[in-house]
Amino acid sequence: MTDNTLDKLAAGLKDQLKVDAAPFVPASALSAANNNNDNGGKKSDNKAPQKRNANNNRGARNKKPKETTTKQGNDKKPKETTTKQGNDKEGSDAPVATVVDQEGNAKNNKGKKWKKDITVKTKSSPSHNNENQDTAATTGPTKSEKKNKSRNNQDKQQRNDGPEDKTEKKIKPTSTNDNKGQQQGKDKGTTTNKGKSKAQKKKQNHPRVHNGEDKRVVVDAASEHSPKQQPEKTKKMAKPNKKSAPSSSTSSASTNNKQPTIPPNQPQTTNDLNYAAGRPIKVVHIAEKPSIGQAIAVGLGGGGGGGSKSYGKSLPVHEFTDDSPFPKAPKATKVTHVVSSVAGHVFNVDFPTEFQSWDTVDPAELFHAPVVKKPCKGSVVKHLQEVAKGADFLVLWMDCDREGENINFEVLECCMHLMAGSGSKFDRVYRAHFSAINPSDIKKAYNALGKPDRCQSLSVDARQELDLKVGVAFSRFQTRYFQGRYGDLDSAVLSYGPCQTPTLGFCVQRHLEMETFKPEPYWLLDLGIMNSGTMCRALWDSGRSFNRNKVDGYIAKCRDANPASVAKVTSVTTKDKNQGRPVPLNTVALLKACSKALGIGPHSALQIAERLYLSGYLSYPRTESTRYPKSFDIAGTLQDQLHDNRWGSYVRDLLKEGFNVAKGGVDMGDHPPITPCRHAHSGELSGDMARVYDLVARHFIASVSHDAKWRSTTVKISIEELGEKGNFTIRGKTLISPGFLAIMLHKQYGDEREDDPFGEEEEEEKDLPEFKEGDLYGLSFSSSKKSGDKVSVAPAGKFCTLDIKEKMTTPPTYLTESELISRMEKHGIGTDASISTHIENILKRYYVELLPGRKLKPTKLGLVLAQGYHLIDNSLVLPKIRSDIEDQCNKIAKGLAERDEVVRKAIDLFSAKFTYFVDNVSKMDVLFGSSFARLQDVGKPFTRCGLTRRYLQFIAGPPPRLYNKTTETVYVLPIGGEIKQWTGRNCPVDGCNFELCLYSVGAPPRTFPLCPNCFNNPKPEWGPIPGEDTTPTPGDEEDENKERNVRRMAGKNMIRECPHPDKMPLIEEMTVSPDPESDGVLILDPHLGPKWRLVSTREPTIVHMPKSVEKVTVLDTKDEVLGCRMMSIEFKEGESPLEGGKKKYTSCFANDEILQGLVRIHHGDERMKASSRGGRGRGRGGGRGGRGRGRGGRGRH
After folding, report:
1. In angstroms, what CA-CA distances link 741 with 391, 580, 727, 735?
2. Can you give the pTM of this predicted structure?
3. Which residues are catalytic?
């Protein structure tokens, strides 16, 4: 694929379809979009009902669009390239014509309306047939350009800015010591420094890392220094519009961020070996996971001098000294090693807060929205800064793949600037390459340290940004559109993924092949030969015929022959054949083998292999190599398996006879194939871990074993009367030497023959009776064209039967996981590490279901989505474009392509496709309408709308939601609990007046009031939105961040607490005390009596009132100190604990020792957070539902 392929595709699509920029289809207009697709994106009539009440706040903004003007520093404007995108009428809602000047600044034409102003680089109009249409800056300067340039230079001289530097600043990628020159190149090549003071420039060029809690935009350091990013001439940029969204790349999202200086390309220089001569040094090692950090500490500290110590819990730190020299500073007197780790990715990629709203952000804007990197966990950033402070050397021990390289540079972004010494600190940063974590491999990697590869990291950045923007834009639009119209979609979110959707497409393609398959009858000649008491079936060499009369004619010709027809053995061939041993195991082969032989899905198989790797049993499981490198110790790996009672004797014999080097395969240079690293005794592992280890160990031993040898016999038989149509073959084979088959079953797994279902049948393992060339067999066959009684022709001792066999063509079966993996690998969908995730995603979304035999059957939803993409734009579901983008990412990893350029072209392409998809979504809607029930036809009346006073229909989902037939408004409800009716109570929020529901969660259940309108339209002053502050589990950040984005796409996250913020008026009216065990409050259970109780809004805590309480009323008066409401408590007659038997009194629960001494506290199941309740809230019941009375710990202030 050439560098301009994506440009051509995008330009061709726009030219053919005359695509405008995507009009925003807000939630309020989703339902009406199908009926108004020909309106060209115009606003709907003001009288049309609103789809979502949340859109009311957007109305004013839509009515007052803002115009964008970009002012230059002088009156002379540089040449501008205008990209026309549709209607130019004043006041139209058609997309804006974007003007891009030579500096890359975007402006909007007068009269155009946008909800947001977007700064974006665009190509020239598709009507121009230029292959490269990026901007006028890509061509030589015209006369007008030179004139404008001259005038600009004069203006700059008048402002004392000095003349422009016409010398291109180049960077030497082979040297990292000349940081000063690089920094100067950066200053002169980055136009955002114009007009700043020297102090400001100095501050900008000396990076600092912010506290890990900050939300920060991580600037692509390589792009700042790359020679291709340096402009030929320094230009004055127009002052950017403050309301304009930044361009699509992360580097342009915030050019003022301060980052460490990291050389962009390979090779990179290392430090002077005389560094720290005569003094001690500190070497900090950072691993990807705590378990690997511990293995590194063991591997390096085993032979070191001095004591060692470990501290820290979640991210342990191991510290020890070593008198042996550090390879990169051999003259240092003593080495102090500090080994710690991160927990996977340090940052995750996401949109800024202003682009998170589904209701106020046009999905089309996401293509050109900025991308920010937010810390997965702020404590990890702080931990890295504390550990690396003052380090002389930094050694990175991340997994040796692209994701690992990306994490390397995330670590450097956090702490490289805190290293000791001056000069280029990156020269003292090293990267260890290892494939196993046993001590010998750790020591070997330590003595052969390399450098981090920035290009591989950039390829991951590009893929992450593309997947985020494309996936979220399409998913937001189609989820809102179709969930607002249909009630039984069986999925909380209709997600789209550049890899996920083509994966679904393969499954749907096979399903359609099955559905459109028409069985046809065919006929063949069946020859059975009786020899030595054994009936042998001979295969007809002509295969089959779809003409019954023709086959009947062959039978008639033999039957009517005179003399009688005979079958003659024309040749008998016997030869020995070798069955080659398997090639070494890579990731894709492992996933296929586990699915086919063990019945373990790809996602689970890879997780199990990773656990075995982290436990030291297997080598790194993410590899593309299928050949052992020359340095691989095959003999040593075999010797580790000598004492196994399952294959120890076989390995012993193999070592005596001499093992073989595996046949075929390719060494990709990343990791060796997957092999066992240490012996696992019988019973040491259990379950699927034991089965996967067994498969890998057997495969490794088989791959270096001898070939299996078979003796194959082929008997050719002919019937002379039929000529060429009278040839038949009998085949059989016997095993002479089992070779590798003694350790691995040859039919356990292997390549599928899906592309040739009617190919030559494999030889059957069987002993054939003796055949001799020239043997004759008399024929016996049917007396008529129909199958009936046989008419025997007297044989001379031996005979055969000739008959017609009728069969039907059979349809293909559903794709197995193994077959799907083969197709994904063939078409370049995903990587060896991500293939399993894409298959798991289409299962999670319920786009396919898993059948017995690990077969994947598309669901109704999956079929409709895939067929809808085909109707609108089949490239969205076909693998071609994604495969091309993967190729471009591979070029980035190899340093053959620029990251920003690849991202820009891909974003332009998908942005145009999104526009066309939105304009033609009605085609997909027709399919949905024929397969799913519309919202107005499902559900039951549940609660009243506060605006129309009409009943809302309850749709069970997923996701659960309420639907207003009158306004066609959809109100998403929280997921994770039970929703009940609560008749007769309305929301107290001004302007709301919706009838309330009840939401119960936990075990035992805690019940909270729920307002559907306020839940969908929370106000910022109410506080943090529940369910949106989950922290990923260390090690699973990428998967959990994607899942969190998916939950956000569905409308709301899983909520197992009060669905409203604590400061929401409805909750404030019921608040009687702060909750000392959480950040929440205690409210009166809305179920009220007779069992009165208080519940915590944020913890699974229930405070049971004594049975003597007859009535509890929350008053309007508040405690002056705590700000919570007072309660009126009434006791039953004769059961009052008050002096004089007083029945009623007013209480502030937070400081009421009398009431606290009577309550019982129960801690239930919260599920969302790890809980350790020891010592909290203990009465006699100990917080476990006991009956004893006690203070419960709540009144101790």
Report:
1. 54, 10, 34, 10
2. 0.63
3. 620
